[in-house]
Fold these 2 entries.
Entry 1:
Amino acid sequence: MSDSATSTSVDPAWEQVGRFGRFGGRFVPETLTRALEELTDEFQRAQRDPAFQAELDGLLQDFVGRPSPLYHARRLSERCGGAQIWLKREDLNHTGAHKINNTLGQALLARRMGKRRVIAETGAGQHGVATATACAHFGLECHVYMGEEDIRRQAPNVFNMRLLGAEVRPVTSGSRTLQDAINEAMRDWMASVASTHYILGSTVGPHPFPTIVREFQSVIGREARQQCLQRLQRLPDTLVACVGGGSNAAGMFSPFVSDSAVRMVGVEAGGRGSRGGEHAAPLNYGAPGVLHGSFSYVLQDEDGQTAPAHSVSAGLDYPGVGPEHSGWKESGRVEYTTCGDAQALAAFEALAMCEGILPALESAHAVWQAMQLAAERSAEQVILVCLSGRGEKDAAEIARLRGIAT
Ligand SMILES: *Cc1c(COP(=O)(O)O)cnc(C)c1O
């Protein structure tokens, strides 16, 4: 085993089998091994194929609206009274978040593999909508697994998926939420691999998904790095991103991993407290274990059973986390903190009032952490936040929590 406690980057030999230090891997039934190997090969070929890259770049430009702007949050910085806070505006992407970067890339892979049917899981519905959007663009059949409980809570996204031509399949097992939707999608895939590609929504699951999703999302960090060098003539001092499964954070962080002067902070959902069932922060309060085909930090009870997660933000409400983040935690390359429900709501309000931007509640976790760091730093320091999505989807819930009539 590699000396993960001292390494600062992923050992290429481990990358071959999808390892990040001792984390990652592929813990799946035999029937899926072949499909995952086929996917690994196709992804490696696509990455070396200029035609694939050109088509993806063209779509990211014309369909998604990339590059997303780098924005100086001047009034928010003034309010914190310290470092300068800059935002990478993934909220301005088509469909309102970073998730479309991954679904377009994977839909292109599906087409290359000659697979005409796509399945996906979704919790809050954001990944479901981004997948349905990519499938509509390419004319692919799309089935989205979604827990019955989430279908009830996220009705507008269910409606949008159907408008985009996707079939939403209710999942009635377990807690009837995201975790069960992933299990159900995996079950479908085992029976349908020949004709179907599974578009996973975050840097989780068995190899090669964590690597594929990180690579498709790393357009965030590549653009941000170039934009900082152009506009500020230097790299940012600190990067901050929220961590659910970890895709927007991995996309932001990975192009900066070898810039050892750049500090990186991942923010997990601290929820209502640090006891079991009150948060969704496996890197802070969980333990290593296997969930959804990968070895990583997981929320567990005393018997090693996956424990329930809680966050005010549906997109962070997941008991696991991508294995690369577990690797970065153990190597010390990235620090992982928490931001609670109430603090995220305060950051939502601060960004709305100071900058005229409604952030997604997920992204508000990163904004809150950036505000804390900014207050402790001098005015020359630059803190760059990944604003992973927009907050219109959360406005009604926030109004309800704050007792504002809608
Ligand atoms: C889904 C989502 C997240 C959490 O997912 P990651 O894979 O951790 O990025 C964060 N922000 C927004 C806006 C989302 O929709």
Note: Residues 147 and 176 are 4 Å apart (CA to CA).
Entry 2:
Amino acid sequence: MKTEDNLKSLEADALARDAADALASFRSEFHIPPHGDGEQVYLCGNSLGLQPRATRQALIDELDDWRDLAVEAHFRGKHPWMPYHNEVREHLAEVVGAQPAEVVAMNSLTVNLHLMMASFYRPTRERNAILIEKNPFPSDRYAIESQIRFHGFDPATALIELDADEPNGTISDAAIERAIGEHGARIALVLLPGVQYRTGQVFDLKAITQLAHAKGCVVGFDLAHSAGNVPVNLHDSGCDFAVWCSYKYLNSGPGAVAGCFVHERHARTDRPRFAGWWGHDQSTRFKMGPDFLPTPGADGWQLSNPPILALAPLRVSLEIFHRAGMSRLREKSIALTGYLEALIRMHLSDMIDIATPREPQRRGCQLSLRVKAGRDAGRALFDYLGERGIVGDWREPDTIRIAPTPLYNGHIDCLRLVQATRDWAVHAKS
Ligand SMILES: *Cc1c(COP(=O)(O)O)cnc(C)c1O
């Protein structure tokens, strides 16, 4: 049998797997973008999550409360604006494995990273370095280098970059241990991702935290590609702080309000911070006094009163995560990504390499694919898929990221990708 016919014969099996999926009904809670007469095969939740159907009404409700109640909506709205950020707290804490007082929804990711570094990167002459991975997301590097300069140090010496030491561009636990062991005494802050955005590699937050704390370093994590993708158990990891955005796996819309975690042990810290009135103790905030008294916990880092129109989609989305449950989502995710990986290894191994680690515990839902024939072929495949409504994303120089997300993707989506890739190969040869 030809590979194409072989792949056709797998459709019944993929559909049967989806029919048996206990989380399958969640797909109908999302708008799947149209393509032709049908729907896209959307495998890009790592970049921008799809819109929940309930989001539109939630926004309209806020506009109506503003129209009908104006200032009174702070207290009498359907979801009163004054305590609004509290409405997302429990579910946000659930998604990242934190205690409710350890999390707050505010600002955007890079802003939160700066606010956290203002408190948790306190360099001295002897200990001023930040340990990062060699190829972090550019915004993180810009933020980190600018903080180093802001304190009068030089990134050329104060930035320690952890190089990939595994064949596919991933970083071994041993390399992390070596770097912390070797440079620990001069590292002020270890700042690593939960999931690396290009390779999809998962880092062991607890192990890294223990190694770094043993050397007296502060530890923070960027969970942009972890939140809503893999369980992270932030509290138990023991890390000092974490930040993440909400428009990727958390499906809260472009530029959505981001998240921030501060470990309980810092709830009443006297570290310096950049303050604003919304971080002031709630019981006396409206006395409008001159002295800043921070609210204990992550709330104490808030600056401004929250953007209600931007928080409404987050509230809707987190409620969906609450119903689905991170552990059930993870279980499905492991199966779904494992299925995609098996299809690729079985039917595309002559043309595609997978950069993402093979072990399920070392990856989330994303697989990073490289076309063996090189960058131009990879780009041509990516464009071919796009024209057929199969949406992943492209990361220079040569990576196609494919993220089957357990809330709205099924096995059939994975099969469609593999079928189309095989068709492209046949097409390219003829
Ligand atoms: C997506 C992403 C960002 C984006 O930052 P914003 O402040 O939300 O624009 C930053 N860092 C990482 C690691 C990301 O994956």
Note: The pocket of pyridoxal-5'-phosphate is lined by residues 108-110, 137, 139-140, 193, 197, 222, 224-225, 245 (CB under 6 Å).
